[in-house]
Amino acid sequence: MADNPVFRSGLTLAAIAAICTALVAFTYQLTDERIAANDKAWLEQSLQPALSGLFFDSGVSESIVTIPAPHALPGSDDAIIYRVYSGELPVAALFVVSARDGYAGAIKILVGVDIDAKVTGVHVLAHRETPGLGDRIESNKTDWVRQFDGRSLGDPVAGNWKIKRDGGEFDQLTGASVTPRAVVKAIRETLEYFDANSAAIFAAAADAADEVVE
Question: What was the pLDDT predicted at 72?
Fold first, then answer.
């Protein structure tokens, strides 16, 4: 049977198929690792704007807590919190949340809060707001989000965590009030959540998310 041409051809095809499968698997593994590394680098870069002026030595995306919905944070999806450390000391928490009531739908934002409960930065991650109006919440178009840097629940007082049109302290955008109103509200709610749950957020236990008040 070993001299059978059909048998030899079958063995040859099987060997070629095995080699091709191995090459594809090897290539996929290399590509998959590269994609994962690129995704992590992009994520780290996206998180950096909310950590302006802070010293930390941990990878921004290394310590993650996921808070399942429903929860007290803005948005109806699961909330993600990135915990940032200097050595073993907590420095800040980055919240990926959604302002539900934007003009054209939910606005996904990143809110950085340091250990003293002050905003370290706000970065808009995704939205569908009107070009030329609501989209000016993006940091690459205006510096509107910079007005929240260093603010806290007491600065301004609770009643002034609104846009000026509503009697608050924060600037709105010319021709757009719904969008900034939604963002201001989401930042305030994030600060309130941090104030109530900071100890649990930075808990060292692996199941820290289970300790966070929902």
Answer: 92
For the stretch 125-183, pLDDT in tens is 888 777 887 788 888 889 899 999 999 999 999 899 999 999 999 998 887 888 999 99
Domain count, the chain: 1
Handedness of CA 130, 131, 132, 138 (dihedral sign): positive
Which residues have C-beta within 8 Å of that of residue 180, sequence separation ≥ 6? Answer: 137, 144, 163, 170, 171, 172, 173
Q: Is residue 42 part of a domain?
A: no
**What residues make up the domain containing 169?**
48-211
